[in-house]
Amino acid sequence: MNGLNITIQRDDLIAALRPAASVAGKGSAVPILAHVRLEAADGRLAISATDGDLSIAEAVPLTEGSAVGWGVTTVDAARLSAVVSSLPSGEPDVRLTEAAGQRLRVRAGRSDFSLSATDGADFPPGLDVGDDVRAFSVMSADLGRAIGETLFSVCDDVNRLGLSGLYLEPVEGGTALRFVSTDGSRLSWSDCPISGAMGVGVDDGLISIGGRVLKRGRLVSRAFVAQLRRLISDGQDWRVTIGDRAISARSGGMALTGRLIDGDFPDYRMVLPTQPCAAEATVESAALVGALKRAALMATDRNSSIRCTFGEGEAVIEAQDVKAGNVREVLPCSLMGAPISTGFNATYLLDVLGAVKGREVTIAFRKPLDPVEVRASGRADCMFIVMPMRLD
Fold first, then answer.
1. Cβ neighbours around 137 below 10 Å, total
2. Measured between alpha carbons, how far apart are the two ends of the chain, in Å?
3. Contact 161, 146 (CB under 8 A)
4. Which of 51, 75, 99, 324 is most deeply packed, by most CB within 10 A?
5. pLDDT tens-place string over residues 45-68
6. pTM of the full predicted structure?
7. Are the beta carbons of 119 and 1 closer than 8 angstroms?
């Protein structure tokens, strides 16, 4: 170590260490990946962590007027985060100093910790986004909404590589970025307004840059998107950079970078309904969610099977179990077209309704076992597809 000796605000340090500790590679075969790297320079403490596929970095200002000794060290991320969080809240400043024998001393008030540390020279560098770089800006509210409306339907089967992340592609002439996900039983897409240079202006899934044919969109890991969602707060602007190897999102002094998935996302447009609707039912979102949750209590089979019947004036939600009993829920509904009845996995439908942002939802049917389209009433910037079930 090189003489780390700084004073920093406790709350600032806690806020930076918590996301770093969540990214650090706990349980990795490479021990240093479980560490957080600390580097003091230019009046700031740079804090970084990585698990090899995801990395995070943030620069936190040092306490004004504090004595500074420049240095670089690494220490167990989870341990340091827990230690700093445990320090007395009445002590605003934390002192970090190098101690003899590769130790990091952490002090606040009468609390005095000595933690095992290692030289920062062996810590791996952050991820590089690579070539074919495109960058754009996005508001936190738009970014959080688009993630919330699609992350739930990312496939959790690690063997289905092409479905294991969120697919991002430019739409609307490059003024919006579409987030798409599917696990084979439901599909979600949500458009997020952006400003920048993401647009490429073709719709066939491929683009040509400098004579090279490249994929139009990028497949982003669930881990990156989930971590980004945790970092989003109101009022932030995010600067997102996408290359051919990684994606990076930056806000203020924080940067999150994740390796892209090298898999082929299916052509989701092939799943979108093209035939005219046979029926279109509109119901209040909260009422439908409540009815489905109560019906699910009796849907005790492996697929949480329920029957939904939509007619003019009312919708009927039913579930039964041979041993436990049955339930029947009735709620108001407006219907365009012929009455229709079909089965659903209650969990899949509830997941979709939990993501839809709107007072009412419209459910469009073709044939009883055709994919069902769910939309938030009055919104054209998102769509959800759910596969119905055969109950007979």
1. 11
2. 70
3. no
4. 75
5. 999 999 999 999 999 999 876 656
6. 0.87
7. yes
Distance CA 355, CA 376 (A): 10
Largest Cα–Cα distance in the chain?
A: 80
| Per-residue pLDDT, 49 | 96
Mean pLDDT of 245-263: 93
| Element holding 294 (H helix, E strand) | helix 285-296
Beta bridge partner(s), residue 374: 363, 384
Q: What is the set of domains in the chain, with CATH numbers?
A: 5-122 (3.10.150.10), 134-270 (3.10.150.10), 279-386 (3.10.150.10)
CA distance linking residue 324 with residue 23, whole number of Å? 44
What distances in angstroms separate CA 99 from CA 30, 32, 63, one per listed residue? 25, 19, 20
Instruction: Identify the DSSP state of 89.
Output: T
Cα–Cα distance measured from residue 43 to residue 67, given in angstroms and rounded to the nearest whole number: 10
Looking at residue 229, its amino acid is R
**Nearest Cα residue to 172 out of 148, 151, 154, 195:** 195
- Report helix, strand or coil for 25: coil
How many degrees, rounded to 5, is the angle at CA 184 between CA 180 and CA 189?
A: 20
Asked if 376 and 288 count as a contact pair (C-beta separation under 8 A), the reply is no
